[in-house]
């Protein structure tokens, strides 16, 4: 696909050797989206090193976007949940996030889930506007249980967004 600005964007399955780049994008993007918007008990566990440690575990559920051979974003989809969606700051506003989100919906649909969902923390208005432009609907508040250590979780107030209407079919892909 060609993104805004004429750059060719390639979507592919993540590989184990992508984990360091995923951690870099994830750490920076998470801080941008969540700093001051999540409970301190969660923020204390989200250090740059925590993303390095967690990234290998999400590779098997992840699709990446590449531009000129460099990973610039990723989406991790588990069943019907778009669990993570992050784009490097250099690629924001280029269509990469929209391509990854549509691809994540396709992945969920191929697994039999026609209406995937995702969570957005209150106060992340940029993300909320983006998801709404992409056809996702705000279903209201809920608490998302986030594991921060073995046997330790934090309830994070969020808004649940769901893809409005049937998602893309495998035939659309």
TrEMBL record:
Domain N-acetyltransferase intervals: 9-159
GO molecular function, one term: acyltransferase activity, transferring groups other than amino-acyl groups
Gene3D superfamilies listed in its UniProt record: 3.40.630.30
Pfam family membership, one: Acetyltransf_1
Keywords from the UniProt entry: Acyltransferase, Transferase
Name this protein carries in UniProt: GCN5-related N-acetyltransferase
């Amino acid at each position: 696909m060609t993104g805004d600005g004429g750059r060719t964007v390639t979507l592919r399955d993540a590989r184990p050797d992508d984990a360091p780049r995923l951690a870099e994008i994830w750490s920076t993007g998470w801080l941008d989206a969540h700093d001051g918007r999540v409970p301190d008990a969660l923020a204390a566990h989200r250090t740059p090193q925590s993303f390095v440690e967690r990234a290998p575990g999400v590779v098997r559920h992840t699709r990446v976007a590449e531009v000129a051979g460099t990973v610039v974003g990723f989406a991790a989809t588990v069943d019907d949940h778009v669990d993570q969606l992050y784009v490097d700051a250099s690629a924001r506003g280029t269509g990469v996030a929209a391509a990854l989100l549509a691809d994540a919906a396709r992945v969920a649909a191929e697994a039999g889930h026609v209406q995937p969902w995702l969570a957005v923390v209150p106060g992340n208005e940029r993300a909320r506007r983006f998801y709404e432009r992409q056809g996702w609907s705000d279903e209201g508040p809920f608490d998302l249980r986030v594991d921060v250590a073995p046997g330790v979780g934090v309830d994070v107030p969020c808004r649940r967004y769901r893809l409005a209407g049937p998602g893309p079919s495998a035939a659309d892909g």
